[in-house]
Each structure stands twice: as structure tokens, then as C-alpha cells.
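Hello again,

I reread your note about wanting to compare the complex against the isolated chains. To keep things tidy I'm splitting this into two emails, and this first one only covers the full assembly. Below are the input lines as submitted, including protein chains and any nucleic acid or small-molecule components. They are followed by the predicted structure of everything together. The single-chain runs will come separately.
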Amino acid sequence: MSAFAHGVTYAGVDVGDSLPAVTSKPISRTTLALFAGASGDHNPIHIDIDFAKAAGVPDVFAHGMLGMAYLGHLLTAWVPQRAVREFSTRFVSITQVHAVVTCTGRVVEKREGNLVALEIQAADQHGDVKLAGKAVVELP
Amino acid sequence: MIDRSFIGRSFPPLHVDVEPFQLRAFARATGQRDPIYWDEEAARAAGYRALPAPLTFLFTLDQDREDRFYFINAMGIELGHVLHGEQAFTYGAPICAGDRVTLTCTCMDIYDKKGGAMEFVILKTQATNQLGEDLGGMTGTIVVRDPK
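Full-complex prediction:
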């Protein structure tokens, strides 16, 4: 069994409801190296400080898709993955090494066809927004 | 300036196998806490035929290429000047370990802002599996900054 109690229903949610927040562990350089390997995103700007400096940035920084994976955890901790119909984000600002990312979301609209629209975001420990996204889930 | 003749052009389709090892590595690297993403039994108990690929995994499948920076190189973009602007997914049938996925990527648009100081490349990828089922797709916006 999944350790996650879902059971969220269309009738049971209201506009303005919050999703339970999900917080990452601090993003270390090891996190970025492992994510580069596991995600296949080998852009050296995320793992090689020499490359980053040569490209004009002071340090490596997190892959945008790492933050998006964390936003995905927010969604699938709330509803089963197969409920998710659409999921998108803007990468608002760079996520620095050592950031602790907290993902939050709320219901913004209930639509025909048991669809529920969400606004979601990922922010660091200073409250700076890193990703600002949307999702649509189809609930029973 | 990126050659605007890339707009509307598709890259050759990519066929990629969804491997459980890669799914488990992804779960570990992202601090995944739900066992359906790494434990075969938990996945089956949750109704999946095998380990499911997480919501953003199509992006990873698209990296299984000889040249991971294929469109960046084809378009003559400097890799160090690339930022990820936006990413969007739509979902069809689930993607699971053991599937063979075909991805087709098309350049939808290229435009610039701030007098050419920033260029934007929009890439749309559609995915199907070995049964011909629609897996949905993804649209990415790549931002290329002019360091000057």
C-alpha cells in the first residue's frame, strides 16, 4: 500500500483550501550531482563551479526540474498521480545551493467534469518564490 | 540571433526504454517519500502494472540521446547562457517501467525580448508508448541570455 492516504474528493474540496505543504531537505552539491545523473540533465552549470564561473555566475545552482520534482511531490502527496491532468510552472528565480524548498498550493477553481484548478509554488527558507505553477486534477 | 527557420521543425523521433533502475535513482535523488515510486509491490498495490514514472519524468526520458544538448547545439546556442524559463506537462496513459516511449520534439516558436538581449525557444514534445497510447506531452521554454 502507498503510505499516502488520499481520499480527496471533488465534493470535499472548496476554493481556497490549502494543500498540505511539502518541504525538501537542504539542497547540497551532492543533491545536484545525484539529480544530474538521475534526471539526465547534465548541464555543467549545475554541477561544475568552474563552468559556472566561466559562464558568469558565481556558483552552481539547482536544476529547475529539481524544484519541479518537489512540486510534483506536493501534488502526489495530496492526490494519486493518475488524478493529475496538467502541471506547469514558471522558473521565477534561481534556487541556490543550501536552499530548503517548501512547496505549497491552494484550490483556485472548481470546474465542470470534476476538475479542480490549483495554484502551486516553491519558495526557499527566506520566502523567496523559486517556482510559480499551476495544476489541474480530476477528482472522484 | 537564433536561426528562425527552426520554427516548425521537428527533430528525429526518440525511442527510449523506461528502466526501473533509472526510476529508483530519480526517486532517491529527489527525496521521494512515497514508496510506489521505488517499491514494485507498493506500485502494484496502488494499481500500477510496474513502477510508475513520476510527473516530470518525460523530461528525463528526452535526455536519453547521444547528444543531450541536441537542440542547443543544432541552434548554435551557448550552453552556459541557457536558463529554463517554463515547463508544462499534460498527461495521458501512465508511463511505467518496461514501457518503450517514443518522443517527438518540435520547435514551436523562437522570439526575443529587450532588443535581442533575451531569446526564447519553445519546444513541444509529444509522447506515445509501445501500444500506441497517448502519454500526453510537454512544452518547455528555454531562455537564452546575452551576457553582454
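For quick reference: Chain A has a mean pLDDT of 95.

B.
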